[in-house]
Amino acid sequence: MKKSLRFVGLDVHKETITAALALAGRDPAEFVGTIAHDEQALLELLDGLGPKARLRVCYEAGPTGYGLARRLNERGYCCEVIAPSMVPVQGGRIKTDRRDARKLAHFLRSGDLTPVRIPECQTEAMRDLERAREDAKAAERVVRQQLDKFLLRHGRAWSGGTKWTHKHWAWIRQQQFSEPAWHAVCDDGIDAVEQATARVERLTQAIADHVEQWALRPLVQALQALRGVSLVTSVILAAEIGDFKRFASPRQLMAYLGLVPSEHSSGQTRRQGGITKTGNRHARWILTEAAWNYRFYPRGSKTIEARRRPVSARVRNIAERAEHRLHRRFDHLTRRGKDSRKAVTAVARELAGFVWAIAREEQKLAV
Q1: DSSP string of 8-28, one letter each residue
Q2: What pTM does this model have?
Q3: Structural domain range at position 13
Q4: 64 Cβ contact list (under 8 Å, min separation 6)
Q5: Do 225 and 317 sit in the same domain of this protein?
Q6: What 3-state DSSP class applies to 50?
Q7: Do 332 and 263 fall within a single domain?
Q8: How far apart are CA 61 and CA 85, in angstroms?
Q9: In the chain, which end has fewer C-beta atoms inside a 10 angstrom radius, N or C?
Q10: pLDDT tens digits, residue range 101-135?
Q11: Coil, helix or strand for 337?
C-alpha cells in the first residue's frame, strides 16, 4: 500500500498555495504548481494528483490556522498540520515557496515530520478566548507601567504597599500638577488603565460564561483542585493541551511543555543545561506562574476547599499530595542555595505530572 502512496506538501499563504508532490521511492519531490488560496482550486489540484485514498497531504502550522486541514479531512483526504520548528533543516541559503513545498513533501514521505494535533472547534475557540485575555493582561501591564513611570518622573513615588489597590487609586487621583498639560497626561493614563482593566474583566467573565457549555468543563473543574490553579489557569491548561490521552506518561507531558532539561552528551561526558522551552509556551508559562504558590506552607483555605468540594475523592487526594510534595520540593531546593526561579521551574515540572494524573483520573470517570 505504501508503494502506491503520493505525498503532497503545501506551502500555504494568505493569498496563494504552492504544492509539491513526492512519489513513493527515492526520486526528488517535484513542484506541481501555485494556485490562489481557494478551496475549490485546491480540490481540483489534488484531484489531478490521484485518488483521495492514495494522497497524504501536509502543511505547516501558521496564521492560516486549522480550517483548511479540517475541511480536507472532512472531504476524505488525509491532511496533517506540521510543527514548523520540528521540520528538518537542509543546507543552502535559498528559501522559496517551491523549495518549502518540495521539502515538506520529501520529509512527509520519509516520516520525519512532527504533526500538530488539530483541536476541536470548541476547544480552539476557548483557546482563542483565553489568549485574547492574555493579550489584554499584557496591554494592561503596559499602560499601568506608563502611568506609574509618568508619576515617578514627577517625583510621585507610591510607598503605601501594593499598587493598583483602591488606596493606590485614591492616591493617584489626588495628584496635582503645576501645568495643565501634565494633568491631561495623568487623566489620559488613568482612563487608559481603567479601559484596559475593564477589557480584562470582560474577557474573564466571557471565559466563565462559555466554559459552562464546553465539553472539557469537567476537566477544568477537576484541575482547580490544585493549589494555584484557578478558573482561568485551568481553562488555559485544558485549552492549550487538549487531549491528555495522547501522553502515555507524565514525562511525555513535561517534555511537550519544554520543562525538561536540555542535554548535550557524548561518550562518557553528560551535560545538562536549562529547560528545552519547546512545545506550548502558554501552558508552560501558566504552570510556572501556578508553581510560585507552592513556596508557601500548605494551610487550609476556604477558596481552595470550595474548589475541591465538587471533585471526586481521588482527584482531591492527588491535589492534596501535590500541595505537600511541591512545597517540600521548593523548600528543599531553596535551602540548598538554588535560585528561586530555578526552583520554581523544577516545581512546575512536577506540577505538570500532577496535572497529568488529575486529567487521566477525570478521563476514567468520564468513560
Answers
A1: EEEEE-SSEEEEEEEESSSSP
A2: 0.91
A3: 2-116
A4: 12, 13, 14, 37
A5: yes
A6: coil
A7: yes
A8: 10
A9: C
A10: 999 999 999 999 999 999 999 999 999 999 999 99
A11: coil
